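sry for the spam today, last one i promise. struct tokens for design, 281 residues
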């Protein structure tokens, strides 16, 4: 084909969008959600494991004093043991928002290498060390880790006497290449969450929902109304709602949350991943 004819025909070709994955830019962050609050986070070249609960279905006793007495986890992990073992070899660190067993169970402690860096709130460092983990990176305000900037935020794991008994909880903001992901942790909507959204203005927010509750007292994780408040407080952020359909005291289901989001015209603002789903930012 002559040069003039080639140039003419080339103008008829469809333009390649700049956002097409793998063509011009590599995604900055990806999540591989497993179940409950457990997921792998890929941020640039760094791979983190968040709040590992790695036990097989029904291995643990149920949460007591709850409306349901089903054993937990109520569902299996979405990958077999051999694949999980392979995945654990690829991680650079683990973030433990707090040490309740649905975020840091005995199976995770068994499977993880004792030399793996553990990023946590300072109040949990002693408990983690007692389990034989020595490479501890407690975060007071912020740390740098392999090119990531990681900030710790506050939260409230319930209200009143129940909230006091649940102890300290934290969230974490991970910043990579100008992109910020806020992992709120086990908290209800509260001043600390509102402040974190305002100060850090994250691009993405992972919220632990499920409206976890005991037979007495109010919810200790976010309700559907709390998720609506998060979405409304920072409309520019994409919210990822997790922490449902896995532990017996979590009363809010994915189906119920989807209905509330639809009623509030927030379905596009908030994703509810299935177990095993990948989310690319």
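last one done:
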């Amino acid at each position: 084909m002559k040069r003039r004819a080639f140039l003419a025909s080339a103008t008829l070709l469809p333009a390649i969008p700049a956002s097409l994955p793998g063509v011009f830019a590599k995604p900055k962050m990806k999540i591989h959600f497993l179940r409950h609050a457990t997921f792998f986070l890929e941020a640039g070249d760094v791979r983190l494991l968040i709040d590992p609960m790695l036990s097989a279905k029904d291995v643990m006793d149920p949460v007591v004093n709850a409306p349901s007495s089903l054993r937990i986890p109520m569902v299996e992990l979405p990958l077999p043991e051999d694949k999980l073992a392979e995945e654990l070899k690829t991680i650079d660190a683990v973030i433990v928002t707090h040490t309740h067993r649905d975020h840091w169970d005995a199976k995770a402690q068994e499977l993880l290498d004792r030399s793996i860096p553990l990023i946590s709130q300072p109040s949990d460092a002693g408990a983690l060390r007692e389990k034989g983990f020595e490479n501890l990176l407690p975060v007071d305000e912020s740390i740098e880790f392999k090119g990531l900037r990681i900030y710790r935020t506050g939260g409230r794991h319930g209200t009143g006497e129940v909230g006091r008994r649940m102890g300290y909880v934290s969230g974490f903001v991970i910043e990579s290449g100008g992109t910020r992901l806020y992992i709120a942790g086990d908290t209800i909507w509260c001043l600390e969450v509102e402040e974190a959204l305002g100060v850090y203005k994250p691009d993405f927010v992972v919220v632990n929902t499920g409206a976890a509750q005991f037979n007495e007292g109010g919810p200790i994780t976010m309700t559907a109304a709390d998720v609506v408040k998060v979405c409304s407080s920072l409309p520019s952020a994409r919210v990822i709602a997790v922490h449902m359909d896995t532990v017996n005291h979590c009363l809010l289901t994915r189906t119920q949350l989807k209905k509330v989001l639809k009623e509030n015209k927030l379905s596009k603002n908030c994703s509810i991943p299935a177990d095993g789903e990948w989310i690319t930012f």
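The longest strand covers residues 29-35. ok im logging off now
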